[in-house]
Amino acid sequence: MDNNPQSKKPNPILKNTMSGFNGLVTGIFDFTHYSSYHSYRKSIARLSLLLMAIVLFWLFGGFLIPYSQRNLLSSLLVFLMAIYLFSYYWINSKARLLKRDSQVLKSQLTLDQPLSKYWNVYDGWYDDEQRQSLEVSFVNDRSWIANWIDILRAKKKPHHRLSDPDVDALQRYLISLQNFSSADVKYVAYATMDDELKNLLLSADIKLTEIPERKYLTKPGRWDYAAARGGFAYGLRKYPQFQAYLMDINPDDYAKRQQAELQKKAKSKQQRSNLIKLRGLQR
Fold first, then answer.
1. Distance CA 195, CA 139 (A)
2. Lower CB count within 10 Å: N or C terminus of the chain?
3. Main-chain phi, psi angles of 3, to 5 degrees
4. Average pLDDT over residues 132-136
């Protein structure tokens, strides 16, 4: 038996080596994957600014560069577009795992009921020692070309993004988070939304608590939002103000709401049955 106290001390060389190795692994993961939906959206926003700069340079670069150096202008535009395309591919490659985990997590937390394709859930960063957050997004992230095609195919009248089944899936998801929470950790959901969506969720008995810190705000892309609303104007002059909210629900209120809906459907079914019988007697 070794009674030498020195032998019980951790090896500083091994400790530093493992710490450095863990840091390297973490660094590689962070370089190739996004840890939260918020960081992904920030990268997309910066990329949109680059595309805007390229378009402006293409429109007005001819006035800044002499005609004799137009070849330089063309070369610069090609170089900038190459940077944009590579960055777009890299960002979406990094987000692939984030989006895949979103679908897996959503399917696990909706009580084996139908899912909604109009909202998704991702790892959030509104965390502390006793709180783990998940961020809900109410728009689908796609390329601007796909969004424009969707808008052109949409009806002229703007449509709302969430139907009753979509809201019901969100309610069940919030209840599931409460069931997964414990005394050690509480799981919370938050989302960035406009006033119209806020009012819709409030009418569905979903409690919303405003998050005052702007850093937790994750604005949707303009054309993602416009495609969700069904009109080009929503990506321009009708692009609204947004606010981040914590979402919660009282399971008892949800149960009462479901019971009322079932009674309403049963009553409507009975009324239709009586109407059919009455028509049969009249014949």
1. 15
2. N
3. -100, 5
4. 91
Give residue 1's pLDDT.
47
Q: Where are the domains of the chain?
A: 34-94, 97-262
In angstroms, the CA 53 to CA 228 distance is 26
Contact (CB, 8 A) for 219 and 41: yes
E-assigned strand segments in the chain: 120-123, 131-137, 186-193, 206-210, 243-249
- C-alpha pair distances (Å), 181 with each of 84, 131, 169, 177, 211: 42, 9, 19, 6, 21
Cβ atoms < 10 Å from Cβ of 61: 16
Q: Give the C-alpha separation, 89 to 46, whole Å.
A: 14
Residue whose C-alpha is closest to residue 255's, from 205, 212, 209, 186: 205
For tokens 């293409």, the residue is: 58
DSSP string, 12-35: HHHHHHHHHHHHHHHHHHHHHS-S
- Checking if the pLDDT of 19 tops 90, the result is no
d(CA 273, CA 279): 10
Q: What is the dihedral of CA 193, 197, 202, 203, to 10 degrees?
A: -170
Averaged confidence pLDDT in the chain: 79
Residue 10: band (very low, low, confident or very high) from pLDDT cuts 50, 70, 90: very low
The percent of residues in the chain predicted with pLDDT above 90, rounded, is 24
pLDDT in tens, 192-229: 999 999 999 999 999 999 999 999 999 999 999 998 88
Q: What is the dihedral of CA 238, 141, 227, 171, to 10 degrees?
A: -90
CA distance 206 to 249: 5
Neighbours of 66 (CB within 10 A): 9
